[in-house]
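Page 47, continued from p. 46.
Same chain as before, 200 aa.
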Amino acid sequence: MNRDIVLAPGLWMPGAAMALLAARLARAGYRPRVFSYHGRSPFDANVERLAQFAGNQADYIGHSLGGVLILEMLNRHPEIAARSALLLGAPVRGCFAGRRLGRHHAGRWMMGACGPLWEEREAGWRRPAPLGIIAGTRPLGLGRAFGRLPGENDGVVCVSETIVDGMTARALVPQGHSMLIVSGQVGRLVERFLSSARFE
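Result:
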């Protein structure tokens, strides 16, 4: 198949967290590469590091903050070729749980320089390549440590926070936030989107 795939994990997650999904994609004939970064580092610096890591034409898959990074990098760098992009539980419109965590000193330290990303904002896709969104609906995650989250959510990110204007397709799955990258159901949806730009 000879298609490169760039994978970006979420905040506080090592690159190894993407190992199961990467192995699945490798068995399907893709060539996955994992972009590792420090989530507490300045967001713009991580965006530019990802742009340098990108290389030739690839598909992009990002979980949580990794998805926010991918969306921003591809919108900011139209010269970088992308076959498709797929965001898993990515809070592209801000994060209620992150804002709530940021009210506490320890939470602000944990988030580091990425804290401002969790403010409410717009999110759009400015490329012709297909963009897929997968969001979890099982409220299992650290985001509920300080109470319930509004609407459907995966325990960290609300479904409404994952919507991107101009997205091609969206799938909701009964998974918690961290389980999105290890779920067999999500893995099958990822493969389907890579082959057809659809989830059905």
